[in-house]
Amino acid sequence: MLRSIFLDALKNLSGNALRSGLTMLGVIIGVAAVITMIAIVEGGQVWLVNSLERMGTNLLFVWKKRLTVEERQLFAGRNTELRYDDALAIQTRFPDLLVAPII
Q: 41-56 pLDDT, tens per residue?
C-alpha cells in the first residue's frame, strides 16, 4: 500500500513538472530568506555586543540636565553649565578617574 502511494505521488509530480518545479523553487527561496534573515540578525547582535564591549564597562558620561521652571528661577543669574574646573574638581576627589571633554 505504501509503495502504491509513493508511485502515485511520483506519477503526479512528473505529470505536473512545471507546478512541482515552481513549488520546490518557492520552498527553496523561502528557506533561503529565513536563513538570510537569521544571519543578518545574529550579525547585528554580534556587532552591537562588540561595540558595547569596546566602549568599556567602566565609563561614566555626565550631561547637563534640562532645568525646570522652578530650578531656573532658583539658579537665576548663576552658571549652571559644567565647566573644566568642575571636571578637575571631580578628578581631584577621585584620582583614578580620567576626564575627557567631548564637544
A: 999 999 988 887 777 7
Cell of 42: 545574529
- Model confidence, pTM: 0.46
- Grouping H, G, I as helix, E, B as strand and the rest as coil, residue 64 is coil
**CB–CB of 65/85 below 8 Å?**
no
Residue 5 CA: distances (Å) to CA of 1, 2, 14, 73 = 6, 5, 14, 87
DSSP 81: S
List for the chain the helix, strand, coil content (%; round to 5). 65, 0, 35
Alpha carbons 53 and 49: distance in angstroms, whole number: 6
Residues in contact with 62: Cβ distance below 8 Å, sequence separation at least 6, in sequence order: 82
Q: In the prediction, which pLDDT does 101 show?
A: 61
Are 67 and 75 in contact by the 8 Å Cβ rule? The answer is yes
